[in-house]
Design a protein that fits this description.
The chain is α/β, with parallel strands linked by helices. The chain is built from 10 helices and 13 strands. The protein is about 40% helix and about 15% strand.
Length: about 280
């Protein structure tokens, strides 16, 4: 197959410095790489909460250093204990600062803590007695009003199903199931099919997954299968990149896209998963 191009690509899940864990790039270095390959947009994520202010500064840096171009950095907020958990005030502040993605808990999710064998004393619960917590209804309203994106993050498959149903009832339009293939999330193919069928969610399928001990496993074969199973229109290609153990962001994205192309996925479908879906989610259409 011909070599893929990253021109216009969008990645809605990348980790950068500053972070409590060393990342391969800082925000400015990621911007440099994105401009270099002609990317359209990236959403930066932190388990420590806000990145909207960092995205603003990066876009200012981009203009000053690189001049006029098509690249935009977007920020997000992750509802871990560090921002008060399911905290509508934090969500509203982030959205007013320009955040485009609201992630449910990652490292504070009860599911994450249980899978990691860590104490759950400070877990951020999103579902109690089979229903979403009241504060999450307020978050749904904010996500809807700002036309932002809700990501399920590190919650369990059972919780994700409850959240997706409640979010759709609340009018949330942009609903992404975050790396369902990762063992911490552990979502079955059957549940992924169900969520696509019942709630028309986007499955975010990422480049590789952390298996612990600094070891990563490629997701590419499984990602190819899920595309064939549920259809490309409900699968978004993201890297979840930034780890020092994995290829730098632009290399990982290129390898991901090239793998799909080499295994028979047409370029128009790859572009749909890397350009059209995230462009719609970010309001860039």
């Amino acid at each position: 197959m011909p070599k893929v191009s990253l021109k216009g690509v969008i990645d809605m899940h990348v980790h950068t410095n500053p972070d409590l864990r060393l990342r391969a790039y800082d925000d400015f270095e990621l911007c440099d790489a994105a401009v270099r390959v002609g990317a359209r947009a990236i959403v930066i994520k932190s388990h420590q909460g806000f990145t909207a202010n960092r995205a603003w500064l990066t876009n200012r840096y981009n203009k000053l250093v690189h001049g006029e171009n098509d690249f935009t950095m977007f920020g997000s907020v992750t509802l871990n204990r560090v921002v008060g958990g399911i905290n509508p005030a934090a969500v509203e502040t982030a959205l007013k600062l320009g955040a485009k993605v609201v992630w449910l808990p990652t490292q504070s999710a009860r599911n994450h803590l249980e899978k990691m064998g860590q104490p759950t004393t400070n877990a951020v619960d999103i579902v109690v007695d089979g229903k979403v917590v009241p504060e999450l209804e307020d978050v749904f309203r904010l996500v809807k009003d700002y036309n932002a994106v809700l990501g399920t993050a590190h919650v369990s498959p059972t919780e994700a199903i409850v959240v997706c149903e409640a979010a759709r009832k609340a009018g949330v339009q942009n609903l992404v199931v975050t790396h369902p293939e990762w063992w911490i999330v552990g979502m079955s193919v059957e549940d992924q099919i169900r969520l696509v069928k019942d709630y028309d969610v986007i499955l975010e399928r990422c480049f590789a997954q952390n298996m612990g001990g600094g070891k990563y496993k490629s997701n590419l074969p499984d990602n190819l299968e899920i595309i064939r199973t549920v259809g490309y229109k409900n699968v978004m290609v993201d890297t979840d990149g930034g780890q020092t153990e994995n290829p730098h962001w632009e290399i990982a994205m290129e390898q991901y896209m090239q793998y799909l192309a080499d295994h028979g996925v047409p370029m128009d479908q790859i572009n749909y998963m890397t350009h059209t879906i995230p462009s719609r989610l970010l309001g860039l259409e």
